[in-house]
Design goal:
Radius of gyration of chain A: 19 Å
Largest interface: A-B, 58 and 84 residues
Number of helices of chain B: 15
Strand content of chain B: 15-25%
Helix content of chain B: 25-40%
Largest sheet of chain B: 5 strands, parallel
Number of strands of chain A: 8
Strand content of chain A: 5-15%
Distance between the termini of chain A: 34 Å
Oligomer: heterodimer
Radius of gyration of chain B: 22 Å
Chain lengths: 201, 471
């Protein structure tokens, strides 16, 4: 996994709450067996018209969006399906972080495991950010994972929560599998005292 | 001793390592269900790292999502989509290489992952069950802690049979009383989601309790637990009881003989203790419920079928109003309008929410001796090949076919629109599935979620109809 330490970038604002993973990456693109290449289909039905051309009224297509690595969206971002293709598509498109006031559980888990940082700000900090970006759309936001703060364009720093273990993995660019594989003895001990409920064989 | 909830008991029994401030718990997984869409990249990761599958004997794979449901020719299912075909073949290769049992397209037990687990007796009380699919919450109907995971975690479970998890909060959803006529499990869960909201149970496991829940059969309980995720819940579950045990007994993978007695003794201990505390409790009166239908673009946007579409101008000025405005535009609906009589193009009966034999019986009871209205396409898609055979043995297929509906092969079908079954842009459907997100059933398609009874009544009327007043 690509490490995440800090990031300073302009933002794209998606003025929508409850953005579901079917919008982030529609199911018809899930027939792939690869992780890469999904960025081409990110928000496909919102971003592209019937001819597959960018819709000029969609924020990701705005000239202000060029080079932005932070997506700012409304509450409960990533609700719906468990498809990890959603964070894969966001990463593949060029995003490294999503700022919201809240994330759906599975999306947050998936994002943290793929190197996309979900940043949940307080409602007031989020509203402040939206105001500042409305005024200066290209203004940068600085996200620092070590200190768990997001610094808004006006220089105010706001704390956000991240599970300490996920933070450790992101800062060091390691995934959880290495840790779980190291638990082999504990897992074997558990298995020796717990009879399996079923056998699929 | 501190009284424990059902979730506390299952959680404690599966701790390989308890959680600390710095590290989540290492939680053991009793059953891992796998399907073609969310697993290929996980198997690839195992291969990259030279890791084997730790417990193939606790793993089962099936094909359902990108699987076509067009009728078989000479017993074989034709997969015409090149990408879907490659994905299905990849699952075969992966299962073969890693020694995992696969209910493939030629297996008579193939079907939707959340239909076959319970059907085979693999889903049992007190277990931890995961799958790369958010509707894994379905299995909670048996008093199992079952939740959806992403592809990275599918890889972790394949490799170690464990997951790193923080303990979720525990929310009680109590529904007492007797359900009025025409009100089903689907209506209960749509009412629950409408009440607590699309993110109302985020971070929580929902435990459904109360006399109305106790009176439900297992398939109805599965419908309820299935849609827990639509309120943001990590999982949904119901304490096991005699109804549960009776359902499991005698199924292919269920314990038998002395093992059955031991299992039963264990299962009897699972229900939440008297006085156990929940982080939050919500109550609903069964008698106050009506058949429900969604009008918007997420499952919480639901109203009683004889109600009226809400007016965004009465929803304040915040994000809720923006959401509602956008939803009504997408659905081409007017504020304040009734949905009764609203024309639809398609009726879909199927999905992991409502494709079991009792769902098909309900729909068939409405369709018997009636016809699908002209201009309406009705698809009936059994959840598994077993359900299909059972329905055919009862003659349900004849009822649907004689009414002018399509009787199809088992799979996710039009719930997910990645297998050939989908709406055309601008079409409207009443669907027994679980999600009405924009484009969920096909780009530009409009979905109204409802029960199998409402779906069947709508097919007959050619427009959204109230089964209680169907002539």
């Amino acid at each position: 996994m690509r490490p995440f330490t800090s990031l300073t970038s302009s933002c794209v604002v998606l003025h929508a709450a409850n953005v579901d993973t079917d919008q982030i990456i529609p199911a018809r693109f899930l027939k792939t067996i690869e992780r890469r290449g999904l960025g081409a289909h990110l928000f496909a039905d919102w971003r592209l018209d019937e001819q597959g051309q960018p819709r000029s009224d969609f924020p990701l297509n705005s000239p202000d969006a060029v080079g932005a690595a932070i997506l700012v969206a409304g509450d409960n971002f990533g609700c719906g399906s468990s498809r990890e293709h959603a964070p894969w598509a966001l990463l593949d498109f060029g995003f490294r972080a999503v700022i919201s006031t809240g994330f759906a559980d599975i999306f947050r888990n998936n994002a943290l495991k793929t190197g996309l940082l979900p940043v949940a700000l307080s409602t007031s900090a989020h509203a402040t950010l939206l105001e500042q970006l409305a005024e200066s759309p290209r203004a940068p936001v600085a996200i620092d994972l070590e200190s768990q703060t997001a610094t808004l364009p006006d220089g105010t720093a706001h704390a956000f929560a991240v599970d300490p273990f996920a933070r450790h993995c992101l800062l060091n660019g390691v995934d959880e599998l290495g840790f779980l594989l190291e638990q082999d003895a504990a897992i074997a001990a558990y298995e020796s005292t717990h009879t399996a409920h079923v056998c699929t064989r | 001793m501190t009284p424990k909830t059902l979730v506390d008991k299952i959680w404690d029994a599966h701790l390989v390592r308890p959680e600390t401030e710095s590290t989540p718990a290492v939680l053991y997984v009793d059953l891992h269900l796998v399907h073609e869409v969310t697993s290929p990249q996980a198997f690839a990761e195992l291969r990259n790292r030279g890791v084997r599958v730790r417990r193939p004997d606790l793993t089962l794979a099936t094909m359902d999502h990108s699987t076509p449901t067009t009728p078989r020719s000479a017993g074989r299912l034709q997969v015409l989509d090149v990408q879907a075909s490659a994905q299905l073949k990849q699952l075969e290769t992966n299962c073969d290489e890693f020694g995992i049992k696969l209910f493939g397209l030629d297996d008579t037990r193939q079907g939707i992952v959340h239909v076959i687990g319970p059907e085979q007796g693999l889903t049992q009380p007190g277990m931890t069950i995961v799958c790369g699919d958010s509707h894994t919450s379905t299995h909670g109907a048996f008093g199992a802690l079952a939740f959806g995971i992403g592809t990275s975690e599918v890889g972790y479970v394949l490799a170690t049979q464990t997951l790193l998890q923080r303990k979720p909060r525990n929310m009680e959803l109590r529904i007492d009383g007797v359900l009025p006529r025409g009100v089903t499990a689907k209506d209960i869960i749509l009412a629950v989601i409408a009440k607590i909201g699309i993110g109302g149970a985020t971070g929580n496991v929902l435990e459904y309790s109360g006399s109305a829940i106790r009176s439900l059969g297992m398939e109805e309980r599965m419908t309820i637990c299935n849609m827990s995720i639509e309120a943001g819940a990590r999982a949904g579950l119901i304490a096991p009881d005699e109804t549960t045990f009776e359902y499991i007994a005698g199924r292919p993978f269920a314990p038998a003989g002395a093992d059955w007695d031991a299992a039963l003794a264990r299962w009897h201990q699972l229900a939440s203790d008297e006085g156990a505390s929940y982080d939050r409790s919500v109550q609903l009166e069964a008698a106050s419920l009506a058949p429900m239908i969604t009008f918007g673009t997420n499952p919480s946007m639901a109203i009683p079928i004889d109600g009226h579409v809400p007016n965004p101008s009465e929803a304040g000025s915040g994000p809720e109003r923006v959401d509602l405005d956008k939803a009504l535009r997408y659905m081409a609906l007017e504020p304040g309008q009734s949905l009764l009589g609203h024309a639809v193009d398609v009726v879909f009966v199927g999905s992991c929410t409502n494709s079991r034999i009792s769902d098909l019986r309900e729909a068939a009871a409405v369709m018997r001796g009636r016809r699908v209205a002209a201009g309406v396409r009705m698809l009936v898609v059994p959840g598994s090949r077993n359900v299909k055979r059972e329905a055919e043995a009862e003659g349900l297929d004849r009822i649907f076919l004689e009414a002018g509906a399509e009787w199809r092969e088992a799979g996710c079908s039009m719930c997910i629109a990645m297998n050939g079954d989908q709406l055309a842009p601008g079409q409207s459907a009443v669907s027994t599935s679980n999600r009405n997100f924009e484009g969920r059933q096909g780009k530009g398609g409009r979905t109204f979620l409802a029960s199998p009874l409402t779906a069947a009544a709508t097919a007959v009327a050619g427009a959204i109809a109230d089964v209680r007043t169907l002539s």
